[in-house]
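Chapter review: from sequence to fold.
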Amino acid sequence: MIDRVYVACDLVQQIGSRHGTRLRRPNSIAITPRFDTRWFEASVPIVVHEYGFSRPSVGLMLRFSDVLIGSDHILPFLTRPNVSGADLYFRVRITLARSPFCKGKRKSGARHESGSTEALPCIIPGE
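The token string follows.
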């Protein structure tokens, strides 16, 4: 595929009897193309609920560094007819402190030995 472009597929299928006490979750199929870099990410989830292929739910998510904004259902924001729901979500990530051992890149390619005082690079999700 293309560098930094990903596609995720999800399937939720209810299993079990229609009678009895249980949580009900709608059947759904989702395909989510995504473009991802260190400072920017965009994805467009397309979800079909209860196999209603004529009315898919189309979303949009944008991330700029540590700020994320998105919606699982953007069509109501673009068109008004037959609005059945809308949502909006956002996230701001704030790093309060890092480990004192997170000091950048390793100086050597050697294996890190137990008890060593050499600083190790820290892996932070999304970076």
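Two observations follow directly from the output. Strands lie at 5-12, 28-36, 40-43, 46-49, 57-58, 60-64, 67-71, 89-92. Residues 5-92 form one domain.
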